Amino acid sequence: MSPTMTHAAFTSVLIANRGEIALRVIRACRETGLRSIAIYTDLDRQAPHVRAADDAVRVDSYLDIDAVVAAAEAAGAGAIHPGYGFLSERPAFARAVEAAGIKLVGPSADVMDKMGRKDAAREIAVQAGVPVVPSFHTPVDGIDLIQIEDSDFPVLVKAAAGGGGKGMRIVRSQAEMSESVMAARREAKSAFGDETILVEKYVEHGRHIEVQILADAHGNVVHLFERDCSTQRRHQKVLEEAPAPTISDDVRRVVTESAVALAQAVGYENAGTVEFLLDTDTNEAYFLEMNTRLQVEHPVTEEVVTINHARLDLVQRQLAVAQGEPLGFTQDGVAVRGHAIEARVYAEDSFNGFLPQAGTTSIVRWPDAAVRVDAALESNQVVSTSYDPMLGKVIAHGADRESARLALLKALDDTAILGLTTNVGFLRALVASDEFRDATIDTAWLDHAEVPAPSDEVARVIAGWTTALVETAVNGQSSGPFQADGWRLGADPAPVYVDLDGPLWVDRARGTVTDGERTWVVEEVSAADHVVVLVVDGRRQRAVVNVQPHLVDIVHEGQRRTWEPPDVFADHGPAVGDGSVAAPMPGTVLAVNVEVGQAVAEGEVLGTMEAMKMELALKAPYAGTVTTVGAKQGDQVPLGAPLFHVEQTGSVDAQ
Questions:
Q1: In 194-350, which ranges are E strands?
Q2: CA distances from residue 321 to 216, 328, 371 in whole angstroms, order as listed
Q3: CA angle (248 as vertex; 245, 253 as ends), nearest 5
Q4: Residues with Cβ < 8 Å from 518, sequence gap 6 or more?
Q5: Is 182 exposed, middle or buried (0-12, 13-18, 19+ CB in 10 A)?
Q6: How far apart are the C-alpha atoms of 414 and 408, rounded to whole Å?
Q7: When you count CB atoms within 10 A of the terminal residue's CB, does the N or C end of the chain come out lower?
Q8: What is the dihedral sign for C-alpha 275, 279, 283, 287?
Q9: Which of 610, 609, 614, 169 minimizes the C-alpha distance to 354?
Q10: Residue 164 pLDDT class (50, 70, 90 cuts)
Q11: Distance CA 275, CA 210 (A)
Q12: What whole-number distance in Å separates Cα of residue 274 and Cα of residue 213?
């Protein structure tokens, strides 16, 4: 198929995205001599991507097609790079860009129409001879006509439009079908504006394999080998790596050749990703979908693939293709060196229901240059629930998979985000696990695995030691009789008392920390610029610590922990009653299902709320009567906002 647009050289590119995505494209523009233009909303007025670009234009929303195109016209942009996410796979956006005479760095709107929908892409794949997952007929209207035999369960209900795990449900019986389909359709409608769904066989033990392809406007298509994205939770990828560690040469050949065939069949242009599901029980690979854009995990491909012995920069290649240049290499020139693993850093509390987090960072420390970091998060930066919770990516490369894994483990130890809870400690636990080390994982691993929260014992010792250290150096004064350091005339300083969820006595003179039952031997190696290095019971420990008058905030081995030292002068009000249901995260109230005076059963859903792609049901703590409804549908509520109160059936007020 011939290209639908005439290619013309351009000298400036508007990036229709934000954060680390925009920074990634800006860097490629700078390295290729192109002028970069950022867009921003009021929330992002001082964001890193705005400061990094050569020019910037304000828009009301990153999702407003007309506003984004108008910004490109106003800034004189010859091309628009959509990044990944937001408008990157919206055919309507591609058409608006084309109509404005601006080049979209990506495929045409017609190709997006064909491949951006899972149902249409499936038919094209079948015609191209690409293996597909067995599916069941799904009527357009209603769900009662979906006939699935009991023996065919489990099945996967998923949105025909879009991706990213939105609108997906695993269904294991006919009894679950109705509710699952309605939920998937509602989620798909909200995320993609299209409630069409597919129902396919669910592979219990599968690996998520995807192939990076690159195609020019002259009919040349190559694959850049494959990635393994099996470490995912509820269809959201967590760790990605390249090359895939366990697939056979035969499977590799099937998926890479199928990806090229599919791209050729549809007349694809620019970078894209063809996703496959490998059934590890049968060793059969099935086509899942095609992402008509660059992927979040593209850095692992860049880290391992060489083109004619040179390093690969996919965004630079995208820009060159958009300029009308031929690829300039063939499949024979593509090679793989070593192994790379990427960890996605999210604003979420992984050990507390994966609840999204929001707030202001106090200290942000990314690992050093030994690994690659794609991020736009800085110290003292506001993280809101308005955007995706991904804060950045840490990518490690090694000569083999184990060396890459160990490098990533160290990098996560050196990653510290204070003021905001993230999943870095969870990522570290995964990378350190035997399952990931041995590559015995599949796509359902994290949905069933029990990943215990790391012990806070060592972190508490470090926090106590650092708190005592700060107290002895308050106002920059040296030790003396009027300091809070246990100083005594003619003797070593007495231990300093610290209360962090219980008493700790820190004896810096003798190098011990005790809680009255156990004593830890501590040697201070260094303490500067919030980074504390101690040897605790013979093991070297590193942490980033921020000691404030009423809060001790620490990140140790990636896991954030906080303590609020008690204020002995504070008034302590009564605890909130058990019948109160508060917002467990900042977000939007999606539904309110009850009203004041209504009787409810224990566990009955009172309402639902959403933040950062997560939908959460708010349930009655016990049977009773609703006495308070504190929000309505559409309300934006902060963390801890009182939403409902249920008075327990048969309860008696205290006299």
A1: 197-201, 206-215, 221-233, 236-242, 270-279, 284-291, 305-307, 310-311, 334-336, 339-346, 348-349
A2: 5, 10, 28
A3: 110
A4: none
A5: middle
A6: 10
A7: C
A8: negative
A9: 614
A10: low
A11: 4
A12: 8
Confidence of residue 385 (pLDDT cuts 50, 70, 90): confident
pLDDT (average), residues 301-309: 98
Runs of H (alpha helix) within 449-553: 457-472
Lowest mean pLDDT among 29-38, 200-209, 518-527: 200-209
| Length of the chain measured in residues | 655
Provide the residue type at 358 as one letter. Answer: A
Tokens of 397: 């490369």
Answer yes or no: are the C-beta atoms of 442 and 280 closer than 8 Å. yes
Mark out the alpha helices in 267-396 (DSSP H runs). 298-304, 314-322
Rounded CA gap, 463 and 131, in Å? Answer: 55
Query: Which tokens belong to 75?
Result: 């800034």
| DSSP 8-state code for residue 475 | G
* Count of H-run helices and E-run strands, the chain: 15, 42
Burial of 506 (0-12, 13-18, 19+ CB in 10 A): buried
In angstroms, the CA 336 to CA 252 distance is: 13
Contact residues for 269 (Cβ-Cβ < 8 A; gap 6+): 3, 107, 108, 111, 215, 216, 217, 321
Burial of 293 by CB count in 10 Å (0-12 exposed, 13-18 middle, 19+ buried)?
Answer: buried
pTM for the full predicted model: 0.82
Helical ranges in 33-147 per DSSP H: 48-52, 65-75, 91-99, 109-115, 118-127
> Does 418 score more than 60 pLDDT?
yes
**Alpha-carbon distance 286 to 277, whole Å?**
5
pLDDT of residue 406: 98
Q: For residue 258, give the nearest of 213, 293, 205 by alpha carbon.
A: 213
Could you count the other beta carbons within 10 Å of the beta carbon of residue 353? 12
Percent of the chain with pLDDT over 70: 89
pLDDT at 146: 58
